[in-house]
């Protein structure tokens, strides 16, 4: 049964305070160059964060396999249950960052909305957006919690604890990194849903960072770092429950700073890849300056595999112009056509998925 975190008084050691300050500067530096024209890069980072958050829970698909599943889903074709659940997590993360983060006051209803979006593709979608009504536990067996690794609070305590959590999210007394660390660990301890708690809890990190104004454009892919050190991450949460709050905050700040540095390196690498695409398209005569192909190149970082329908939606151009752009980009080697029927054709952005594989694995490029 966790203590309330609203109005929690903390005394951080000098080394922890220094790490918190460094992490905040790293996020601010990442966001210093964020502006609306770079929205596709923002979606790329948000997509990566969502995929990594699912990976922490043991759901993993390769970047190419997931990108193809995403394209199939866009075309209304069948795809695997695992892919649909990961794609639902992308939607839930988008909801949390773009909508819940902008709510005047964050409340339990916002939590339920995030979970509802996440859980709509669960094997049991009836739990979507519903606080659990029975005791649950992690580890052990399905019949009793005697050998469990963790037993969260009973159902009758959840509403009170979530109210305290939301009140804490609406305050601004603590540094944003400290606030995000506490909110995440407290939510994981409350464990208010039958399933999906980890992914909602990691979404809340970005709700806090967006609401506090330090991640207004780009989300640092913190789940990438947490997934790469899953055992350390879980041990940190266990330590928080044992009142080792300072160590958890220090660990969280380290992970956040690394995530921001990783994101900045990959944004640079993707920008360089995009410049290479433009050079390829320029070779020879090249299309007119206002041609759809140029607009489509700008959108490719957010869509490593793209269809004509997606291309039309993101560029706002007519289908005829989109098909001409797709042909021009294919001739230039920017897009690689995938073997499908002409009615359901899709294209892969050359070189992008290889970069994303490195990012999702938490490796610095180069």
Low-confidence stretches: none
CATH fold node name of the largest domain: Fic-like fold
Strand order in space, largest sheet: 1-3-2
Helix fraction by DSSP (H/I, runs of at least 4):
55-70%
Count the DSSP helices.
Answer: 15
What general outline do the C-alpha atoms trace? globular
Number of strands: 3
CATH architecture term of the largest domain: Orthogonal Bundle
What is the number of independent domains?
Answer: 2
The overall average pLDDT, rounded, is 90
Q: Give the termini separation.
A: 46 Å
Series of H and E elements: HHHHHHHHHHHHEHHEEH
- Class from secondary-structure proportions: mainly alpha
Largest sheet: 3 strands, antiparallel
What do we call the CATH homologous superfamily of the largest domain?
Answer: Fido-like domain
**CATH classification, class level of the largest domain:** Mainly Alpha
- Radius of gyration, in Å, reads 22 Å
β-sheet strand percentage: under 5%
What does this structure look like?
The chain has 366 residues and is an all-alpha fold. It has 2 domains: 14-264, Orthogonal Bundle (Fic-like fold), CATH 1.10.3290; 269-360, Winged helix-like DNA-binding domain superfamily/Winged helix DNA-binding domain (Arc Repressor Mutant, subunit A, Orthogonal Bundle). Helix content is 60%, strand content 3%. The protein is built from 15 helices and 3 strands. Strand 2 (335-337) and strand 3 form a beta hairpin.
